[in-house]
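Hey, can you fold this one?
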Amino acid sequence: MRASGLALLALLLGIASPAGPGPLAAVAGSAEAGRELFIGARRLRNGGAPCGACHALGGQGLAFTASLGPELSAGVSALDPASLDGLLETLPFPTMTPIYDARPLTAAERADLVAFLVPAAERGPPRDAWRFEAWGAGVAGLFFLGLALAWRRRKGSARARLLARAARLEGGSP
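Sure. Predicted structure:
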C-alpha cells in the first residue's frame, strides 16, 4: 500500500512519467558511489545530509538501519529508475524540503543513488531484524537486572549508620 501510494504521489506531482526513460538515461550512475553517498562516506556536493542519516534500507546491514524516515525498500522497488530520479530531483516530502531546497542533489549524485537504490531495494527489508532487537532487549534486561542487584546490596546512608551506632552505644551504657 505504501509503495503504491508513493508511486501515485510521484505521478500526480508530475515527477514521474509512466512512459519510458527520462533524464536519467543520459547519465549512467555507479552503484558503489551511490552506496557511499547513501551512508555518508562520500559527501554530497551541495552539502545535504546523507540518505542513511534518516532512512533504513533493508538487506544492507547495520549501517543502513536509521529510523527517522521510512525504510526505503518497498517504496523504491515500486518505482522505475526514471521515476526515482525525478523523485530525488524534487524531494516533495515535508521533512526533506527544508534540508534539500538549498542543497539539491546533482544529476550525477541522483544517477549514482538510483544505480545503488534500485538493486538494493530488490532485496527487500531484512527478514531477521528481530534478532538485533532481541539482542538489544536482552542486553538492556541484563543491565537493569545488574542495577537491581547492586541496589539491593547498597550499604545505605552514612547518617543511618551513624544513628544506628549511636543507638547501640546508648543502649549498652547504664
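The chain has eight helices and no strands. Let me know if you want another pass with a different chain boundary.
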